From TrEMBL:
It comes from Arion vulgaris. Pfam families: tRNA-synt_1. It catalyses: tRNA(Val) + L-valine + ATP = L-valyl-tRNA(Val) + AMP + diphosphate. One of its GO terms (cellular component) is cytosol. This is valine--tRNA ligase.
Length: 466
């Protein structure tokens, strides 16, 4: 629908012109299966109480998580060692410092000295003092990997540490990394442990409760990476969304979801929305770059971009290339309450209400004014922040109106393990089988023809028998 393409481009350009959309190199969530960035809201949290083996996309063997690995860094020109711990052992290949608390007497004599990287003898890492280090956790010494951890990145900025890129977009180790270059990140984890142990630097492992970041689309383990992306500053937009609920302009039913609404939007304020995706489908970012000067401009079309750049550069004509990234699908979805009625054209008539046999009357010539805002939105509580909050934020920012008066959230039908029934999990029950009944053979055949992982089919069949 070209009208919706126009709406998405217009929304981006208006937000860009307001200074709310910008491009920056920041720590972002990265899905190796999609080879794309993710917003925080697209990352699920999987709590683990201890050692747990999980199936990871792209690997035949399961991978163990919930383990804290200990290894030693030898102090330069000394027999002394400093022991650190990590749940992501492979990231030690991109370490650029070891941090201790400035008030920790155990390490005060080491601050300012250097350690030798055990797998890259030519690389020296400084021992730095930073108050973020918890003296009571582990050994009180922390490895710093600025390129693959958000907290470590902040530490790295404070201490001007170099950044080493460890992963390729597909989750393999960069080829320039010795020992494990080109290997899958989790295969590399085992190899690093093996080599550290062989060299006498490995100090064992302990069970460790942890929370794994999981891509909500692919089930892959999300990696933190430093990448240049497009972001939307949502701080003030989130404040406005909280205020309309607090004032009663927007009612959320059941009302107990209001506390979750406020909590999530407060969290949203602290991190801007990563809009860009490295995918082959979606609305393309409407930003163009001059092929000669490298100057960027946001425009509603290639022609407009050329005219803007030529004017700004004082040239008769320029050639441009459009940004290859596409927008997060929730960006276009967040415009739905008003884009479906022809926004930004206030005189547009929506084809969903008018056909050739029932053309619009003079009284209904402006669908946007007639049908927007709406009265009620009914949706699942699982997308309250994916979709609803963003519709409210975008509507307030671009139209000055709340998109609907009330949000009615329905519950979720779940399976025996408490998981939401979904096509991607393959755990959906046909309602007709519930109504008419189905034999065990029929239920088993449905499992075999579905998209459940083969390792889960046997478990599911056993569940059918119970």
């Amino acid at each position: 629908d070209e009208r919706l393409n126009v709406a998405v481009t217009e929304a981006f350009c208006r937000l860009y012109d307001k200074g709310l959309i910008y491009r920056d190199k920041r720590m972002i969530n990265w899905c190796c299966s999609l080879k794309s960035s993710l917003s925080d809201i697209e990352v699920d949290s999987l709590p683990l109480e201890g050692p747990t083996t999980l199936k990871v996309p792209g690997l035949e063997d399961k991978v163990e998580f919930g383990v804290l690995y200990h290894f030693a860094y030898p102090i330069l020109n000394s027999d002394e060692r400093i022991i650190v711990a990590t749940t992501r052992l492979e990231t030690m290949l991109a370490d650029t410092a070891v941090a201790v608390n400035p008030n920790d007497p155990r390490y005060s004599h080491l601050v300012g000295q250097k350690v030798v990287h055990p797998l890259d003898k030519g690389r020296l890492l400084p021992i730095i003092a930073d108050s973020f280090v918890d003296m009571s956790f582990g050994t009180g010494a922390v490895k710093i990997t600025p390129g693959h951890d958000s907290i470590d990145y902040e530490v790295g900025c404070r201490h001007d540490l170099p950044i080493i890129e460890l992963f390729n977009d597909d989750g393999t180790i960069c080829n320039h990394i010795e020992i494990v270059g080109g290997q899958n990140r989790f295969v590399a984890r085992s190899k690093v442990r093996e080599v550290l142990n062989l060299l006498g630097y490995y100090h064992g492992e302990k069970n460790h409760p942890t929370v794994l970041p999981i891509c909500s689309r692919t089930g892959d383990i999300v990696e933190a990476r430093l990448k240049e992306q497009w972001f939307l500053n949502v701080k003030e937009m989130a404040q406005k969304a909280m205020k309309v609920v607090e004032s009663g302009q927007l009612k959320i039913t059941p009302s107990y979801n209001e506390s979750s609404w406020n909590e999530q939007l407060k969290n949203t304020q602290s991190r801007d929305w990563c809009l860009s995706r490295q995918l082959w489908w979606g609305h393309r970012v409407p930003v163009y770059t001059c092929t000669k000067s490298g100057q960027r401009v946001c425009a509603r079309s290639e022609l407009e971009a050329k005219e803007k750049l030529a004017r700004e550069l004082g040239l008769k004509s320029v050639e441009v290339t459009q940004d290859e990234d596409v927008l997060d699908t929730w960006f276009s979805s967040s415009l739905l309450p008003f884009s479906t009625f022809g926004w930004p054209d206030p005189t547009s008539n929506s084809s969903i209400f008018h056909t050739q046999s029932t053309p619009p009357s003079a009284e209904s010539s402006c669908d946007l004014n007639k049908y927007f805002p709406q009265t009620l939105l009914e949706t699942g509580q699982d997308i309250l922040f994916f979709w609803v909050a963003r519709m409210v934020m975008m509507s307030l920012e671009l139209t000055g109106k709340v998109p609907f008066k009330e949000v009615l959230l329905h519950g979720m039908i779940r399976d025996a393990q408490g998981r939401k029934m979904s096509k991607s999990l393959g755990n959906v029950i046909d309602p007709m089988d519930v109504i008419q009944g189905a034999s065990l053979q029929v239920l088993d055949s449905r499992l075999e023809s579905g998209n459940l992982d083969q390792t889960e089919v046997g478990i599911a069949k056993e569940g059918n028998r119970k």
